[in-house]
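INTERNAL AUDIT FORM
Audit reference: QA-55
Scope: verify that the stored structure record matches its stored sequence.
Auditor: D.O.
Record contents follow.
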Amino acid sequence: MVGLGTLLGGLWGLAAALLPGQYAGQTRAGAPLRLHLQADGQVRFQDQPWRWQADGDALVLRRGDVTQRWRVQITDDGAVVLTGPPFGEARLVPEAFDPPAPPPSTRPAPWVGAWIHRASGGALALHLAADGALRLGAPGGPQQAGTWRGSADGLVLVVDGGAPLRYTARREGPRLVLAGGDLPSAVTFEPVSGGTL
């Protein structure tokens, strides 16, 4: 999995790649397991309401004083493997994301363009084409390809070979500000003159 957080200086956690949605599968012992991770931080587990959050490489569920912590691994085929009590290991696959991702034809004009984030350690270029193509990487250096989908307040970026990562997005004047996904804090991108990276 490769996302903006990885390219900005380190992986802040595999669990951050989990998108709100419905996941189903089974434990290693064969017992069925379903999780519906809601965007507002709620989840149903063992027929009880819980709160969930991503913490590094862990998915953490809380209900009152009770905490469940599972290590998260995302396999090459997109399955989510959770390891920890009470079931040892479970393999889940996404059934549907909440809210549903917009159709590929939904690419709001505010997100289309060439963008650059500059930091003391270097820069990251992001190009969002109107046809849904995505390129990101160091300006003038190797670029990774992928696709993107947009909505009025967010982006879903999929770098080829990676899992989808959902970011909130907003415009601040000419700037593009992204947060969420695998980013520990908001990142501001400046528009690139002429739209080339």
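Auditor finding: record pair retrieved intact. The chain has two domains: 20-97, 101-195.
Action required: none
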